[in-house]
Amino acid sequence: MNSSLRVILMTRSYEERARSLEEARWGEVWEFLSRHASGSFCHWLPHGFLWPAKDPGSSLVDGSITSAFLKYCVFPTRWAAHFGFYTHHEIQSQLLNEHNETEYRRYYETVRRLVPQSQLLEFDVRKHGWSELAGFLGRPSPPSGTPFPRMRVGTVAHSSVLWQLSPLKCIVFMSLMCGSVLVNFLVACCLSAAAVAAVEAVLLCVLGRLPFKRS
Q1: d(Cα 65, Cα 54) in Å, to the nearest integer?
Q2: What is the pTM of this model?
Q3: Any transmembrane segments, and where (predicted)?
C-alpha cells in the first residue's frame, strides 16, 4: 500500500446501523431517486466546464460546483456499475452486506488487516471532530465554530448533506444539469432538421434530373 495514502474508517455499531437503515427507509427512496436522476443527466453535462483545478487534499464537501459534480456524477456507489467501476454483482453484494451483521463486522476486520495502523484513522463522529480529521490528513482545520456535517440525523438521507451545507451550489448544479439537457435537446433537434432538409434537397435535385415520360 502506498505510504502516502490515508484511510478513514467510520466506526459505528451494527445495532446503530441497522436502526438507522430502518428509520431511513424513505430517505433511501429519495436517495435512489436522486441518484437515478443525476446518473441519467450526468452524460449530458459539459464536464470540462465543471472541473476547475482542485488543490490536492481539498474538501469535496465545499461550496464549489466541482464537489457537486463529484458527488452526483463520479462517486455514487449505487451508480458505480453504470460508470464501469464495479460489476452489478459486486454492488448487489455490497447492498446485501449492509444488512448482514457478520459481513458488516468482517468488513471492519478486513480494513484493519489490510491498512497499516499509521495510515488508518478509525473515526467516530460521537467522539471525534475537525481536529482529529485535519491532523490525520495533514490539512488545516476549518475556522473555529464551523459545524461538523452530520450525514444522518434521524431520517436525513445521504444526498441531503450538500443541500444542508450549500443549498445555492446545489441549485446551481441542478440548473446546469437540466439546462445542459435542454441545450443538447435543442441542438439535436436543429441537427435533425438540418439533416432532413439536406436529404430533401438532395432528393429534389436527383429527381429533378431524372427523365420522365409524358403521357
Answers
A1: 11
A2: 0.44
A3: 193-212
